[in-house]
Amino acid sequence: MLSFEDIKHTYHGSSGDVEALAGLTLTVEAGEPLALIGPSGCGKSTALLLAAGLLVPTGGSVRVAGRPLAKPRFATGLILQDFGLLPWKTVFANAELGLRIRHLPRADREERTRRTLEQVGLADFARNYPGELSGGMRQRLALARVLALEVDLLLMDEPLSAVDALLREGLQDLLLALWRERGYAQVLVTHSIEEAVFLGRHIAVMAPRPGLVAALIDNPNMGVVDYRSTSEFFATCRAVREALGEAESRVDSGGALQGGKPPQGGEALGVQGKPHQDGGALQAEEAPRSEDEPHAGTSHA
Hints:
By secondary structure, the protein is of the alpha/beta class. 31% of the residues lie in helices and 25% in strands. The chain contains 8 helices and 12 strands. A 6-stranded mixed sheet has the order 6-7-8-3-9-10, sandwiched between helices. The chain has a 4-stranded antiparallel sheet with strand order 2-1-4-5. A hairpin with a 6-residue loop joins strand 11 (271-275) and strand 12 (282-286).
């Protein structure tokens, strides 16, 4: 669905050039939810803007649905940190804005908007204004505006960073439910390890700038009922934390990461899949570590 092929991107400014990405290679399959995590300034948001067609890479190729991406496409939705709501328009008008821009017939516009507001729990607030909503409700409105477009690729740049922990979990549950129902490919940029593990079937760990994928962690239990309280969830969180620490320590010690294909799967990062005896979902367990294998450090997201 989405592929980054040896992406390089440099920002040119009056005080000099900044190399944001250096050899980013990553693929997101159709219907797959991927989480992108890494330290501030590692190029996560740049990668998202490239995927949206809002930036053109300095080098390499971005492909969506098998085609080179040269400009924004109608079937891609993008949610940024600041929501981008229009304060002078009602909840309903904000939610239908993208459909108006695309000149959909009024009846189709209103039907889609009503249905989407019901899905995100805002149907009763259709005539309110964004300033009358809580932070979580504004976030749901930003999500509704994108979902009304019926996208096949949803890109989100830290969409839940401004809400408190309890509300954040509720919105994570909503994102999971909507992904299950709609089946779009999803790329979530986050600084939260727990959020990445809860919402990413695969978790791409990025190295400090210039960014590239230092590790790709499989998370087959993503979506399992009560996943947050399982040992598999905690094991995968630990693997992501160790991968972040290892990527940073390798750069700090002068062992620069090279571009190209990242390590694949949990086994490369201290977690491996093991089938349940009853043939159910995979569960993660700690992989044995050889004596000469360095222990990864820790890092906060």
